[in-house]
Amino acid sequence: MLQTLALSKQFGATRALDAVSLTVEPGEIYCLLGANGAGKTTLVNVFLNFVDPSDGQALVDGLDVTREPLATKQRLAYIPEQVMLYGALSGLENLRYFAALATGRQAARAELLGLLAQAGLDATAADRRVSTYSKGMRQKVGIAIALAKNAKALLLDEPTSGLDPKAAAEFAQLLRDARDRGVAVLTTTHDLFHAKQNGTRIGIMRAGRLVAELRSEELSHADLEALYLEHMK
Amino acid sequence: MARRELTELWRDGRLLLAGGLMLLLLATAFAVGWQQQRAIDGERQAAQALDYDAWIAQDERHPHDAAHQGMHAFKPLPPTAIVDPGITPYVGSTIWLQAHRQSELRFRPAQDATGLQRFGNLSVAWVLQVLGPLLVIVLGFNAFAGEREQGTLRLTSSLGVRPRQLLAGKALALAAALAACLLPALLLAAGALAMQGGWDAVLRLGLLALGYALYLGIAVLGVLAVSALVPSTRLALVVLLALWIGGVTLAPRVASDLAREVHPSPSRQAFNQQMDDELEQAYRRAWRAQLGTDKRWGAELPLNRWGIALKIDDEAGYAVADQHFSRLWDSFARQQRLQEWAGLAVPLLALRGWSMGVAGTDFAAHRHFSVAAEAQRRLMQDLISHDLVEHADPLGDRHFSYQAGKNLWARVPRFHYHPIGAAAALRDNVASLFVLGLALAAAAVLAGWAVGVRKP
After folding, report:
1. In this complex, how many residue pairs, one in chain A and one in chain B, have their CB atoms less than 8 Å apart?
2. Which of A70, B148, B289, B416 has the lowest CB atom count within 10 Å?
């Protein structure tokens, strides 16, 4: 579903991505680990066509993201570290707007409230302006937007950083639900525990290169930590 | 999409503040224009009637003396001058129709303007032409740049929304916001003009609205293009304000100077000098050919031929004056046309031409009036010369003792002026409309390109 072929990106003198090849199948959660600046976010941005690759290809559902940016984006849902919404609108209005843009139809209020509930947003907050929301609440609206889109692939850029443990656990459950529906999930994270718990596969990036790829059931949390630190040396 | 934008504009108070201010200004400008138009037009109609009464009431006197007293023609102010007074403040309102020579219109309002007159120049057209784009800037400068800074543009874009679709939504939102601010003013104007000037005025108002809609459309697309191109809202605001200052203050100045350079028009003094010289020659030629002397009004010509001499003298002058005034006015018209084409780069220039043109307050309207007034003068002259020829005294020395009476005065009709109609005004100014349309298309292409340039 999500695939990169020898993907490289050069920003001036720095090589943000260096011949990265990876594949995320439907029903998989692929956790990308790595230090800040390892190229994880750049990889996500290439999938969204926010960054043009210098070399290689990124494919969504077999379609090249630079050649068919709209078709590929329609198959994706994206939740960034900070979900940015319109502060002057309520959570529900934001969801209604973005869901309408994503799906091309106006959803009913009940349906939208259902999505927000599914994403774990407190029902009383739905009609408050987003400018009064905490980060976690905005994140939940972002999840509701992704749910509304019903995409085949999810791109997550450090989605749990800054969330409290309960919210992070709820979020992980939503990811597992998505996986069970056959969605391909690619998430970047710093959280080894989260990666081990939820990931089907784990990739470790360093200086733009994918240095290790493993299946999470093959190793314990301690193994993963040791391996990660080994690669970060 | 447009609805979301509007909600935001409404909730952050910008629409209410900027739009409300605009509406207030427009209403003030309209009220001022309305009051002035009524006062001035009333005065001029009254003066026109009084002037004719004075003409009719002349005692018995020598007809040529009467011609020297002459009549006056007062230029009526069209109802649409409420919206756009055009060149009205800078050209004369009254012309003296007297013996011998074509006059220019006198009494320019700007001549004896005080500080108050500045407020008087606050016209609806000025508000829309100058402050209209500013309103668009205030409402739209952050359309793309702001969303980029906020990060919402990334989210929107990640949903697979086409940049052009986004542009269309934002343009629609701005257009709707402008309509909310301006439509009440348009309806008010339509009502007032229907009362004042009937269908012709309403039709003209419709044409005016069309021109201003195109103009503001260009502003909307231009603002969105800049907002999409620059990296930050701050830069967007700076660039847009710079463009605004250049577009509404500097460029029109430069364009009019440039137009004068390309199609030079003589100074008033040079014009008068040259026309005087040529008139003198024409008179002499006519006198020599038809009266056998080149000394005008000399002792060689018996007084009983002074009537015919007046006629010959006048007629010799007509062609020369026509030629000179046409040449002068044509050069003004060419300057105007050039400026309108410069509207491709600075749409204000094309709009100004269109607006004055269909409002009936441009130079073409002024010229039309001048020509009509001159025709009235010639009618008066010819009637009087003819009367003098008919009453040429048989004795040869009583030319000056002949006195005509009310019969003759009444043969000169009242001066009725029919301004250029709305349809003709449309035809004459269709080039400006075309330029505005072209500029709008160019702005659309620019904006369409601009939204695709920068990654979110």
Report:
1. 67
2. B416
Confidence of residue B444 (pLDDT cuts 50, 70, 90): very high
Which of B157, B158, B164, B453 would best serve as a mutation to test chain A binding (most A beta carbons within 10 A)?
Answer: B158
Q: How far apart are CA B140 and CA A10, in angstroms?
A: 35
Contact A98 B155 (CB under 8 A): yes
Contact list in B for residue A142 (CB cut-off 8 A) is 155
* Highest mean pLDDT (candidates A44-48, B6-10, B61-65): A44-48
A51 in B contact zone (CB under 8 Å): yes
Q: Does A159 touch chain B (CB under 8 A)?
A: no
For B151, the closest chain A residue by CA position comes to A84
**B159 vs A contacts (CB less than 8 Å):** 73-74, 98, 101-102, 145, 149
Angle at B22 between CA B20 and CA B26, to 5 degrees: 115
Tokens coding A223: 């193994």
- The verdict on a CB contact (< 8 Å) between B4 and A86 is yes
User: Mean pLDDT, to the nearest integer, of B64-69?
Assistant: 79
Give the model confidence (pLDDT) of A59-96 as tens digits: 999 899 999 888 899 899 999 888 889 988 999 999 99
Burial environment of residue A53 by CB neighbours within 10 A (0 to 12, 13 to 18, 19 or more):
buried
Higher-confidence residue of B21 and B238: namely B238
Closest to A95 in 3D by CA, of A78, A115, A75: A115
Tell me how far apart the alpha carbons of residues B277 and B298 are, in angstroms, rounded to a whole number: 19
**H or E, element range at B302:** none
CA angle B101–B104–B107, rounded 5-degree value: 135
Q: How confident is the model at residue B223 (pLDDT cuts 50, 70, 90)?
A: very high
Contact by Cβ (8 Å): B420, B78:
no
Binned at pLDDT 50, 70 and 90, residue B266 comes out as confident
Cβ <8 Å between A84 and B152: yes
Q: Is B152 an 8 Å CB contact of chain A?
A: yes
Pairwise pLDDT comparison (B279 vs B447), residue with the higher score: B447
pLDDT, chain B, mean: 84
Report d(CA A178, CA A150) in Å as an integer: 9
Task: Tell me, yes or no, if B4 comes closer than 8 A to chain A by beta carbon.
Answer: yes
Burial of B339 from C-beta contacts in 10 A (0-12 / 13-18 / 19+): buried
Task: Give the pair of three-digit tokens for residue B229.
Answer: 């191109």
> Do residues B70 and B97 lie in contact, with contact meaning Cβ atoms separated by under 8 Å?
yes
* B399 pLDDT tier (thresholds 50, 70, 90): low
Does residue A73 contact residue A44 with C-beta atoms inside 8 Å? Answer: no
Interface of B with A in 153-172 (CB under 8 A): 154-162
